[in-house]
């Protein structure tokens, strides 16, 4: 079987979507499929484009993908993700020309996301884009959503034959080591987050504790309440340090706000290398995921896939109703769910968290085993879609 996988970012790019397609290609090739990757550009971590520059980049990406795709093939299947925005429309045209079947794995729902974030006017432009996306959705069999909330949204957009498949977590590099003791955890924090375990952080006389936002800080994510909560923690002398690890369009704005609030225990770091991502998560006491409430069902933060395997408390700042919130409540009673606008509640929750119970935390080997299991489940489901679904 001949399969074409299309996305803006493909391996060896560090984008999460590039990793997913790389895994899928590798798995399908073990099943004697001929798989081709088609991407438009590299540089997921190289800085985001906005405004006219973003429109020009995306238009070029669509043209390049269509032109390159027409010169390839033939194919039995075309599988596309969502980037650049509107990719299902271009992929549907390519599938019609190639007489191939189309599958779309929706990483977000466009143009609704762009309208909610103010990147696309809610009027004639958005209606035209929505019509093009309906063509792409109706041409997709299967159309794959990330959770039940997204499935419901896609149904209103004209999608049929919708399956649900969240992204599997990245496969961590296992290290043969037992769970860290509290002393060892502090040593890891010291090397990972530049926290001196022998010296209290500013304004506190207690052992430092880390709450970590790792990954892209984009316009779809909430961050102001995190900084306000950190200000309250510092004012009370609570030994918490807020760490942002990654980049994104809102990073500079967040740094400016942190400076305006006079935060002393807020640390900014670049993306963690892939082999250091899991150790950095395990070195934190609390992990943060966020999403604007208006985007419920339009996105699913991919960072949750790995975070939920660490047994660290997760602070969710976003919609407190829906699939994500339900899953987090079910996963652990220690997880905290907060709608935006309540930094006092976040600060109180952090201050009330019990100390980390190192004896009951998973090892990196056990996390790798669980991640491998989820990855295998997801890949087998995709293989079923592509190799065994009736025409």
Describe what this molecule looks like in 3D.
- It contains 14 helices and twelve strands.
- With 391 residues, the protein is α/β, with parallel strands linked by helices.
- The protein folds into two domains: 2-170 and 370-388, Glycogen Phosphorylase B (Rossmann fold), CATH 3.40.50.2000; 182-362, 3-Layer(aba) Sandwich (Rossmann fold), CATH 3.40.50.2000.
- Helix 9 links the parallel strand 8 and strand 9.
- Helix 3 packs across helix 5.
- The two termini are 14 Å apart.
- Residues 42-47, 176-187 and 195-200 have low confidence and may be disordered.
Q: Main traits of this protein?
A:
391 residues, alpha/beta, Rossmann fold, 2 domains, 6-stranded parallel sheet, 14 helices, 12 strands, 42% helix
Secondary structure layout:
Elements: E1 2-7, H1 16-30, E2 34-39, H2 51-70, E3 77-80, H3 87-98, E4 101-105, H4 112-116, H5 124-138, E5 140-145, H6 148-156, E6 162-164, H7 182-193, E7 209-216, H8 224-236, E8 240-247, H9 251-260, E9 266-269, H10 277-282, E10 286-290, H11 304-307, E11 314-317, H12 323-331, E12 336-338, H13 343-352, H14 364-388
Parallel strand pairs: 1-2, 1-3, 3-4, 4-5, 5-6, 7-8, 7-10, 8-9, 10-11, 11-12
Helix pairs in contact: 2-3, 3-5, 8-13
């Amino acid at each position: 079987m001949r399969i074409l996988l299309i996305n803006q970012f493909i391996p060896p790019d560090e984008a999460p979507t590039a990793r997913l397609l790389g895994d899928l290609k590798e798995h399908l090739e073990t099943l004697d499929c001929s798989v081709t990757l088609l991407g438009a550009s590299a540089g997921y971590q190289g800085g985001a484009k906005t405004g006219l520059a973003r429109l020009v980049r995306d238009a070029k990406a669509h043209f390049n993908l269509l032109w390159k795709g027409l010169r390839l093939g033939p194919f039995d299947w075309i599988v596309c993700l969502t980037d650049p925005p509107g990719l299902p429309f271009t992929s549907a045209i390519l599938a019609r020309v190639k007489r191939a079947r189309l599958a779309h794995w929706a990483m977000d729902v466009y143009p609704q996301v762009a309208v909610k974030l103010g990147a696309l006017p809610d009027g004639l432009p958005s209606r035209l884009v929505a019509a093009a996306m309906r063509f792409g959705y109706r041409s997709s069999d299967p159309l794959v959503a990330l959770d039940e909330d997204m499935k419901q949204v896609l149904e209103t957009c004209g999608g049929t034959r919708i399956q649900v498949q969240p992204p599997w977590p990245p496969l961590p590099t296992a290290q043969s080591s037992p769970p860290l003791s509290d002393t060892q955890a502090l040593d890891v924090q010291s090397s990972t987050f530049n926290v001196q375990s022998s010296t209290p952080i500013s304004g506190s006389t207690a052992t430092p504790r880390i709450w970590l936002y790792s990954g892209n800080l984009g316009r779809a994510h909430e961050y102001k309440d995190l900084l306000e909560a950190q200000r309250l923690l510092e004012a009370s002398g609570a030994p918490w340090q807020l760490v942002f690890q990654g980049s994104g369009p809102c990073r500079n704005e967040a740094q400016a706000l942190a400076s305006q609030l006079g935060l002393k225990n807020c640390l900014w770091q670049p993306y963690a290398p892939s082999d250091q991502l899991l150790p950095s998560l395990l070195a934190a006491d609390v992990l943060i995921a966020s999403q604007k409430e208006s985007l419920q069902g339009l996105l699913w933060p991919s960072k949750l896939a790995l975070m939920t395997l660490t047994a660290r408390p997760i602070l969710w700042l976003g919609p407190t109703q829906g699939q994500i919130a339900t899953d987090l409540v079910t996963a652990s009673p220690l997880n905290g769910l907060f709608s935006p606008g309540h930094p006092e509640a976040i600060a109180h929750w952090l201050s009330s968290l019990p100390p980390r119970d190192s004896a009951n935390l998973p090892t990196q080997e056990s996390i790798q085993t669980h991640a491998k299991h989820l990855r295998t489940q997801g890949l087998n489901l995709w293989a079923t879609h592509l190799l065994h679904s009736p025409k």
